[in-house]
Each structure stands twice: as C-alpha cells, then as structure tokens.
Specification:
about 450 residues; alpha/beta; Leucine-rich repeat, LRR (right-handed beta-alpha superhelix); 2 domains; twelve-stranded parallel beta sheet; seven-stranded parallel beta sheet; 33 strands; about 15% helix
C-alpha cells in the first residue's frame, strides 16, 4: 500500500501506530481523531504527503518529523497542538495553522530552500520577523497572521520574487512598510484568467473541468484558472471583508494583508507598481499622509481597504482608473475635499467614505449634487423607502392622466379643423346610438 486516504469522514479515536512501510500519501484529515501524533509515523521514510489537519489532536509535533527527506506536504493545521515547530522540519508546503504553537519564528525553516507555502497563522508565535526570510527564494505563500509578532517588516522580504500571498495581519508589527514593496515580482505582472504568464514556474498540477489531473510547466493556456503548489492545500483568508476558504492557490490570486497592526509613516509609492495585485488591506494601522496617486496604476486591483488610519488630503482622481475595483473602504480617516465623481466612485455605499468629517460629495449627503444622468439611489431606511416608492407611483398616475388628456385634445382639435372627418365621426356615433337604443328599450320591457 502506498496511498491511504480516509479524509472527510467521522472517524474517532487515536491515530494508529503501525503503518505499511512503503506508504507515500497518508491523509486522515477532517475527522475527529484525538490524542498525540505517534512518533512511529517517522518510520515512513517514503512519505510524500502527510495530512492530519482538522482533527482534535493535541500534544507537540514529534521532533523526528525533521527526518523526513522527500516529504512535499506537511499539513497539521486546525488541531490543538502546542509547543514549537521542531528544528529541521522541511517540506514544500508546511501548514500548522490554527493551533496553540508558541515560541519564536522557527529559524531552521530558513534553510528549507524548497519551501513554497508557509502557513503559521492563528497561533501564539512571538518575536521579530527574521531578515533571513528573504532567502526563501521559492516561497509563494506566506501567512503569519493572528500571532504576536512584533518589530518591523524586514526590507529583505522584497527579495521573495515568487511571493503571491502575504498575510501579516493582526500582529503587533510596527515601523514603516518597506518602500521597495514594488519589487515583489509575482505581484507586478498582470495575469489573465486561464493563463500562466511566468516562465519560471516548476511543473504543477491542474484540476481540469472534468476533475481530471494534468501536469504543466512553463507558459501556456490551461483548462482551469487554478494550479496547486505542490498539491491540494486549503487556506483561509479575509477578502473583501469576508473570511473565505480557498481549496486551491489560484494562479491569479495575489494579496497583501497588513491590517490590524501598528504600522506608521506613509503608504509606499511603489504599491502602484504591483499591477497584478488584486487585494490590498492596510486598515487599522497608524498610516498618515496622502493616498498616493500611483495606486491608480494597480490595474487589476479588486479590493482596497485603507480604513481606520490617519490618512489626510484628497482622494486622488487616479483611483478612478482602477476599473476593476469592486470594494473600496476609505472610512475613518482625515480625508478632505470632494469625492471624485467619475467612473465607479459614486457607486460605492456611504460607508466606504464615512468617518471623514471634511470629506464631501456624492454619495455622502454633504454637498451632493447628482449629475442629471445619474439617478438618486433608493434610501436605505424602510420608512424612507416606502415614501420613495409612493412618490414614484404618484408620478406614474400623473403621467398616465396627462397622456389621456393630451390624446383627447388632439382628437378634438382634428375634428374641429377637418369638416369631413367631423361628419364621418358623428355619423358613426349615430349608428352606435341606433344600435344601443333598441337593446336598452327591450331590456326595460
């Protein structure tokens, strides 16, 4: 036996201590297993994927996991594990999300040159983010959110040329955001759905429309917009204000989430170079200064959240150029001036701009003068909405009545002008009356 997969069932009890020695894939995730992780799993020297996630396992991660030589995926997320990540643990995908792990950032991971996905979010890690993190040249996903990291973001992080997802939200990180953030190469290239536009990708698997699996490498169109790094690994992320679960890493999915920290200083101008970035969240920090006009260069941006900072000045008109923008939140800042009135800027709800006392223009009520070609949006309050609809119905009946009056006046005018038409009309009226009178007389009798 080389594959053992009983994932997504309702198994209980403990993980068995004896397994076939040639096992390559062991997946018991999404069950209700309890107890410690048996160290006997370390004897499976041919193991390529070990998935114990979404169970109720406790205790610590066995230190012998560092002996795995060819393992590609190690997923221990969503359990109750404590302690720290053992020294020397290395795989292409390391996921320990949502546990009770603690201690400093596991420095030994820096020596894992094949690491592509690192997810240590929702734990209790402390300390600084090491500068040597920039040496992980193959890293595509870095998720360290909801921990207790402090210090600043090391400038070396911009050396991660293949990084697609960076999530450092909900920590105690301070200082300024590195000004060279525009050097994140994988976020600087616009990607089209269904295509991989990079020639530096390793071979990957694609899930086709008929649930088949094909392998691809290099450039070329694919049958689905997703690829796996290096195989099926789920991850959670808050996008457009909603926490979502992603079963795959999308080839077009690029995101930076630095929200709920203590960053200060200005928003780097280089963010405008990230033409392939789709989600940017810098909310709940202490950022100041103006919103840089260079953000208008982020041509594929879908969600921008700069709320709850100390930003000032006007909203740059260049943001109107981001036509793909579906979610915008600039609330609770010190912005002033008028909201740009072009493109989709007036289609966002009031909450996108609220909390800026000196900001004016539609859709805010202060100095809102809607253009003639723009309809007033229906009110949100139920009572106001009913009044709005009653007003619309009233104008409907007025319009119908006026149209009937106008038609009657036109007929009378024509009869007054044309004598021949007038004679024909009254002859027709006489015929109708002669037909109706006998009917009425017979009915009375």
């Amino acid at each position: 036996m080389t594959v053992f997969d009983v994932s997504r069932n309702a198994f209980t009890g403990r993980i068995a201590s004896t397994w076939p020695p040639d096992l390559q894939l062991l997946m018991v995730n999404n069950n209700s297993l309890v107890g410690n992780i048996p160290s006997s799993l370390c004897n499976l020297t041919h193991l390529e994927k070990l998935d114990l996630s979404n169970n109720k396992l406790n205790g610590s991660i066995p230190s012998c996991f560092a002996n795995y030589k060819i393992i590609q995926v190690l997923n221990l997320g969503h359990n109750r594990l404590d302690g720290s990540i053992p020294h020397g643990v290395c795989s292409s995908s390391l996921i320990v999300r949502n546990n009770k792990l603690s201690g400093a950032f596991p420095v030994s991971i820096i020596n894992c040159k094949t690491l592509q996905v690192l997810d240590i979010g929702y734990n209790r890690f402390v300390g600084d983010i090491p500068w040597s993190l920039g040496n992980l040249s193959a890293l595509k996903v870095l998720m360290m959110n909801d921990n207790c990291f402090r210090g600043s973001i090391p400038s070396e992080i911009v050396q991660l040329k293949q990084l697609q997802i960076l999530d450092l939200s909900s920590n105690n990180i301070s200082g300024e955001i590195p000004q060279s953030v525009g050097s994140l190469q994988a976020m600087s290239v616009a990607r089209e759905d269904g295509h991989i536009l990079s020639a530096q990708l390793n071979p990957f698997h694609v899930i086709t429309k008929d649930n088949g699996v094909k392998s691809y490498s290099g450039i070329g169109p694919i049958e689905s917009i997703v690829y796996q790094v290096p195989s099926h690994d789920e991850f959670d992320m808050t996008v457009k204000g909603v926490k979502l679960n992603y079963p795959y890493i999308f080839s077009t999915f690029t995101a930076i989430d630095l929200s709920n920290n203590q960053f200060n200083g200005k928003i780097p101008l280089d963010f405008g170079k990230l033409k392939g970035l789709r989600y940017l969240n810098l909310s709940m920090n202490n950022l100041s200064g103006n919103i840089p006009p260079s953000l208008g260069g982020m041509s594929q941006l879908e969600s921008l959240d700069l709320s709850t900072n100390r930003l000032s000045g006007k909203i740059p008109a260049e943001i109107q150029l981001v036509t793909s923008l579906a979610v915008l939140n600039l609330s609770n800042n010190n912005l002033s001036g008028s909201i740009p009135q072009g493109q989709q800027m007036t289609t966002f709800p009031n909450i996108s701009y609220s909390g800026n006392p000196y900001l004016e223009g539609c859709p805010l009520p202060k100095k809102c003068s809607w253009p003639e070609f723009t309809h007033h949006p229906p009110p949100n309050d139920m009572e106001d909405r009913n009044a709005y609809h009653r007003k619309q119905i009233l104008w409907y009946y007025i319009g119908v009545g006026l149209s009937h009056v106008a038609g009657y006046c036109c007929v009378m005018l024509l009869l007054a002008v044309r004598r021949g038409w007038r004679l024909k009309f009254f002859n027709w009226v006489d015929k109708v009356l002669k037909f109706l009178f006998p009917c009425i007389r017979n009915r009375r009798l």
